[in-house]
Amino acid sequence: MSAINVKALTYQNVRRFLNSFDTVLTDCDGVLWMHMTPLPHSADVINLFRRLGKQVFYVTNNSTKTRNDLVEKCRTLKFEATKNDILCTAHLSACYLQSLNFRKKVYIIGSEAIAKELEQADISYCGLGPDPINQNNPYSVFEKDPEVAAVIVGFDEHFSYPKMVKAATYLNDVSVHFIGTNTDERFPVSNDVVIPGTGSLVRCIESCSERKAVIMGKPDNYMAKMLMERSNVDPQRTLMIGDRCNTDILFGTHCGFMTLLVLTGVTALSDVERWKQSERQEERNLVPNYYIDALGDLLPYLKE
Ligand code: PLP
Ligand code: CA
After folding, report:
1. Active-site residue, 184 included
2. Average of per-residue pLDDT across 205-219
């Protein structure tokens, strides 16, 4: 792995790099936008990629959005997108259960988006919303729903001890499927507050259930497997763009894609420099092929 600064290349070499792929997978938050704010010229770059005939897929670990939500968000922020261009973890969780021919009920720790994607796949569910500790029943004894045969853990702002009790109890039966949407440990925030991400919730349920979840998001391969099944993608001519090396870049490395890190999100260049020198292969796998300050900086090279 090399970590070449795109802006240190000659114009001709950047053009050669841009011609070396015809499929683009782009992470969303930190590359295209920050929450609801689009990053400057990211939309121009993505839309130009499409105009140049490249297929573009939006690949996000965010489990709080359905594919429809993301199409709408893309359109609001001026990114061209259709539903088939979106790979998100709420949708993939439903696809995974469909691929198992799952006919029973899911206990959800997560948000409405997971419920909506399950509904579209005709899969029933329970467990949404707050589940506060019952002071009269402090051990949270509950009546098990005999129909539950899967547990999905995604981002849940109502995560609670009673939810842990329920998830771990269902998962005590080894035939119950265990799905984690993603493993991002924290959300990137600019101040001193640490906001635990979905990965922290998944690890919590893994710990109390003594099981390992099947992970839908980056860096695990399920996203790529789904993409390959649905689309014609040549890994050697595919570029993965991301802002977080332990999800996006590792995913790209696992799948044999070229990787481009943008420095508008989670990973700093100093982290990359440290991993480049590391003796450990796991750390060297986090090093991208290329990096650039911001995706929008590619715009001048894409215009004739
Ligand atoms: N999970 C949640 C709940 C989020 O809100 C976000 C970002 O907004 C993410 C994960 C990370 O998303 P991405 O993979 O697009 O960076
Ligand atoms: Ca990101």
Report:
1. no
2. 98
Ligand 1 centroid distance, CA of 224 (Å): 18
CA 109 / ligand 1 centre spacing (Å): 16
Q: Can you give the pLDDT at residue 166?
A: 95
pTM of the model: 0.96
Please, are residues 112 and 88 in contact by the beta-carbon 8 Å criterion? no
Encoding tokens for residue 262? 């943008």
Q: Is 29 a catalytic residue?
A: yes
Which parts of 66-206 are beta strand (E)? 86-88, 105-109, 124-126, 148-153, 177-180, 186-187, 195-196
Angstrom distance (rounded) from CA 266 to CA 259: 16
Task: Kindly report the protein residue whose alpha carbon is nearest to atom 8 of ligand 1.
Answer: 29
Query: By the 8 A CB rule, do 270 and 238 touch?
Result: no
Which tokens go with 277? 């020198």
Q: Which residue's CA lies nearest to atom 10 of ligand 1?
A: 62
pLDDT at 175: 98
| pLDDT (average), residues 101-106 | 98
Q: What share of the chain is helix, strand, coil (3-state, %, to 5)?
A: 40, 20, 40
Q: So what's the pLDDT on residue 138?
A: 65
Give the tens place of pLDDT for each residue, 184-196: 999 877 678 889 9
